[in-house]
Write a structure and sequence with these properties.
Oligomer: single chain
Number of helices: 3
Distance between the termini: 24 Å
CATH superfamily: MTH938-like
Helix content: 10-25%
Strand order of the largest sheet: 3-8-7-11-9-10
Number of strands: 11
Structural class: alpha+beta
């Protein structure tokens, strides 16, 4: 997809990535604020940093959509899964794939995931978060 900037120059959409784990300062309005930046859409927070995530609804939380988490499994003991406004359990197939990779997971609302992520960040634990954006 090409976007157009000043003077109609095409702008290329780049993979969104902040190469460090930082606290989430705010969430809502379809996105997040962290690290002095804002991001529209869902996010994955991995040992490698904060990444944009294409998932928009709990049904989008699949082993395929969590491929980046699985790639970093050696550095992740726990995955927090923020499922939107309400708690929606992770699909059994996804839970099995995570378990096979040695990753425990906990599903919760997006708000709870953000709060717990910030606490765990302060404790320097080996974890990741997959958090759906909410309006």
């Amino acid at each position: 997809m090409k976007l157009f900037g000043p003077r109609s120059r095409p702008l290329e959409r780049r993979e969104q990535h902040l190469p460090e784990q930082v606290p989430v300062d705010a969430y809502g309005n379809g996105g997040f604020r962290f690290g002095g930046m804002s991001h529209r859409g869902s996010i994955l927070i991995l040992p490698s940093g904060v990444h944009g995530w294409s998932a928009v609804a709990p049904a989008d939380i699949t082993a395929d959509s969590l491929a980046q988490v699985l790639e970093e499994a050696a550095d992740v003991d726990m995955l927090l899964v923020g499922t939107g406004r309400d708690l929606v359990p992770v699909k059994r197939e996804v839970a099995e794939v995570l378990r096979e990779r040695g990753i425990k997971h906990e599903a919760m609302s997006t708000g709870a995931a953000v709060r717990l992520f910030n606490v765990m960040l302060d404790e320097r634990r080996k974890f990741a978060a997959a958090i759906l954006a909410v309006d």
